[in-house]
User: Fold these one by one.
Assistant:
Number 1:
Amino acid sequence: MDRKALESALVPFSEFCKKKGYPVRDTCLQEAYPGDSSSSFILEVKADWVDNMDCSSALDILIDAMWETMDENIRKNIFSISVFDSNEDLHCATANVARETAH
C-alpha cells in the first residue's frame, strides 16, 4: 500500500482519539523492515495520557481507534504500534496489530 494512503488514514485516527478524550501529540509511520517501503509499517504514537496508564489499556484505546477509523486493507499494513509517553520514552509496543480479533 502507498505510504501516503497510510499517512492520510492517520488524520481520522488522530481526530477520533481526540474526540474520545485521548489526544495524540504526534503519529509517525516507520518501515517495519528498513529500506522496504512496500512492506508493513510500525505506527508510532506519542501521547501524554499514557503516562498514567498501563500498557494494555493504552493499546486497547489505540487499537479500538484503528478499528473505528481504518479499513481492513489499511490495518493489514500496520505491523505494530509503539507508544511513547510525554517524555518521548517508549511506553509500550505490540506486534501483529492487524491480526487482533475484530471488535
Number 2:
Amino acid sequence: MTRSATGSSAGKLLAAILVLSLAGCTALTTQVLVNESGRPRPAGTVHCSGSEWTDNSLIAVVPIPIIGLAMPTQELNEIKSDDVLSACGPSDRLTNRHVEVNRAMCIPTVLTRVLSLGVWQWCPADVSWDADVIPPATRAGAGGAPAGAPIDEAPRPYGSSLR
C-alpha cells in the first residue's frame, strides 16, 4: 500500500470516529427538567412560553490544571425548573409545565476547557419553557378584587410570551 493510500484511509477512519462521537454527544445535549404536558388545559388559563440563552459553565471537581482534564465536572450556574418557570408566575398556579435545556453549543466551546487546561468550560445553554397559568381566584368584598377585574401580571423577562 502506498503512503498516500494509508493516509487517506486513516483520514477516513478519523472522520468516521469524529462523526460517530459527535452523534453520541448531540443525543446527550438535550435535558428535559420538567415534562407535565398532556393534561387537559383548565378553563381560563393563559399559555406562557419562552426561551433564553443562559450561562451553564462547568468547572472541574478538582480544579488543578492538566489534572482537571481527567476529572468530572460540575455546573457553576445550575439551571432549576422552578427558577425558569418563575417567569410565568407562582408555581402553585402553573400546570402542563415543560422545561428543556439544550446544551448543543457546549460541544464547540470545549476548546475553552482545553485552553484552561481542564479547569473551566464555558457552556451557553438554550433554556425553553412552556406552562399554562391558572388565574388567581378572585374574592369579592373585603379588599378582594371584584369579579372580572384585570389580573395584575408580573413583568416577564425577555423571551417569554403569553398566548
